[in-house]
Specification:
heterodimer, A: alpha/beta, TIM Barrel, eight-stranded parallel β-barrel, 9 helices, 13 strands, B: three-stranded antiparallel sheet, two-stranded antiparallel ribbon, 6 strands, 13% strand
């Protein structure tokens, strides 16, 4: 059997995340993953779920970390909030990074708090020079504090701001340039936003700086029909990746080259084998890319 | 043009109150109706975090009433962190006020028990020491021994039979528990094999609570009203449940 990578004396992976498919680690799969050790390239965990001193989840991640390369993906920093960088939350992220030594650390291009209240959602930013400046400044401060480069993910959008003066891809490129961060391209989010707001999904992917994209996310979404506004796509991570998103993913890989690709599933979570099957499908796309490149 | 600060303030108002959506959206976003997606997401995230912390309470009151409680609670105690894990920390106190005097007042104590489980579940798990650790002390020192207990230990007491309710409701459609069964005391502890919720006698509850508060063994014994046999039984329980992770003598 081929080894998945090298482990250090501490029993954690020292290899970078490979350009293969991985899966998002959720607590319902902890035991199955540790028992079955499926042939996936890496795992990604939500940083906030592992802030604690102890508990079953922390112990499971410590064990999983000795088997698979790890990425930590945050959902709570709200880096685009005008109220400022959440230093307390950032300190917890650093503690998690020091403890689990992930190969990648990522967050979102969004905001999440106002007036001391947190909305615990990935709220959209207007694509303006002011927002580029604020988000870039917060990312740069976070990177300095963490001693790590962050990958910043595009979020699904349900509204567009009248004030936006940039395309979303130009906004993200400017943030990457100003802050030195990398980008996490969520292909499902591009698709959801494109359908909800009439954005050209391929132009989005073509507009990103190729060298900045360090990871890709794939997930499912829900379709909701409203009486007044027709169909709205909701980024619920509750189903298989749809055909249109697979097609967009192939387009992205053809343009960007092979990138570590994650299968995310957060609601209506199926058996681990279903996620592994989805990862295998993504691996096939990545393999095609290698063949074509060769 | 509005500043980013103004936009986020207006957007936040629209999330808090649907009636503010028109004002926020009219000048800022399209389509305004889709602000409801963010409002629903935010509501769901908050409510789901509460439901994960208080599964038995939710099962007892049903989805609709739980939704109402969560909405009232969120207005009074909105999320103050990007980490939703601790969002339920004030829920028991909130319920104690919100349900005071009514037939569901006991739900506040059920919430305290479930929150104790939540806190215990993510605490550090230390290696326990066995009863043989007492062998290093001379008999005269025993009453001066101070125990370090597991960081996960949570103690609770209620005028209602909340442990019985909690135990009975580990499955759907549990039979009602007789509320006249009276007061119960309990401890919650995280162990390798999972969380332990143990009903304790009043004396044992007093004993373990005293130890947890740092009282020496002699004082804990007096607080619990134990004779020598009672103390031995209590010590046997304490070590058997892997509660103790260190023993020191006050006199050393």
């Amino acid at each position: 059997m081929t080894s998945l990578g090298n482990t250090s004396q501490a029993g954690t992976f020292t290899d970078p995340i490979p350009a293969r498919a991985g899966i998002g680690l959720r607590s319902v799969h902890h035991q199955a993953l540790l028992d079955q050790r499926p042939p996936i390239g890496w795992i990604e965990a939500h940083t906030e779920n592992y802030f604690h001193d102890g508990g079953a989840a922390v112990r499971a991640l410590e064990r999983a970390r000795s088997i698979y390369p790890l990425s930590l993906h945050g959902v709570g920093l709200g880096l685009g909030s005008v109220d400022g960088l959440d230093r307390e939350h950032l300190a917890r992220v650093k503690r998690a990074i020091d403890r689990f030594e992930p190969a990648l650390v990522s967050e979102h291009a969004c905001w999440g708090q106002s007036g001391g209240e947190f909305f615990n959602d990935l709220l959209p930013l207007p694509y303006t020079a002011e927002a580029v400046s604020l988000l870039s400044s917060h990312i740069a401060q976070a990177q300095d504090f963490l001693g790590r480069r962050l990958l910043i993910e595009n979020v699904s959008a349900y509204v567009a701001f009248e004030h936006s003066t940039l395309h979303e891809w130009d906004f993200l490129a400017a943030v990457a340039r100003e802050s030195g961060c990398g980008l996490l391209l969520d292909v499902n989010n591009v698709y959801v936003s494109s359908r909800n707001l009439g954005i050209d999904a391929r132009a989005f992917i073509n507009g990103l700086p190729r060298e900045s994209v360090g990871e890709i996310h794939l997930a499912g979404h829900a379709r909701v029909t409203t009486p007044d506004h027709g169909e709205v796509l909701i980024d619920d991570h509750g189903s298989s990746v749809c055909d249109e998103v697979w097609e967009l993913y192939r387009f992205a890989i053809a343009r960007l080259g092979a990138r570590p690709t994650l299968i995310e599933w957060d609601t209506h979570i199926p058996a681990l084998a279903t996620l592994v099957d989805e990862a295998r499908r993504a691996d096939a796309v990545l393999e095609d890319c290698h063949v074509i490149a060769a | 043009m509005s500043s980013l600060r103004d936009l986020q303030r207006a957007f936040a108002s629209a999330l808090r109150d649907e009636r503010d959506a028109g004002e926020a959206g009219a000048e800022a976003v399209r389509p305004v109706a889709n602000l409801a997606v963010y409002r629903n997401n935010s509501d769901w995230q908050f409510r789901n975090a509460l439901a994960l912390s208080f599964p038995v309470l939710k099962r007892r009151v049903g989805d609709d009433f739980f939704r109402q409680l969560a909405a009232h609670y969120r207005k009074r105690f909105p999320s103050r962190s990007g980490d939703l894990h601790w969002v339920g920390r004030n829920f028991a106190d909130f319920l104690a006020v919100h349900l005071a005097g009514g037939e569901y007042a006991w739900l506040a104590d059920l919430a305290r028990l479930e929150w104790a489980r939540e806190v215990a579940s993510v605490a550090e798990l230390r290696s326990a020491v066995g009863v043989e650790s007492l062998g290093q002390f001379v008999p005269e020192e025993l009453e001066h021994l101070v125990f370090t207990l597991q960081p996960s230990l949570q103690m609770g007491a209620s005028d209602y039979p909340v442990v019985s309710v909690w135990l009975a409701n580990q499955a759907e459609n549990a039979s009602p528990v007789d509320q006249s069964a009276g007061a119960e005391q309990y401890m919650v502890l995280c162990r390798d094999e999972g969380l332990l919720v143990a009903r304790l006698s009043p004396a044992l509850f007093s004993f373990v609570s005293a130890l947890a508060a740092g009282a020496p063994l002699g004082k804990a014994m007096a607080v619990a009203g134990f004779d020598e046999a009672g103390l031995l039984e209590a010590l046997r329980f304490t070590f058997a449940e892997a509660l103790v992770c260190g023993v020191q003598s006050e006199k050393r």
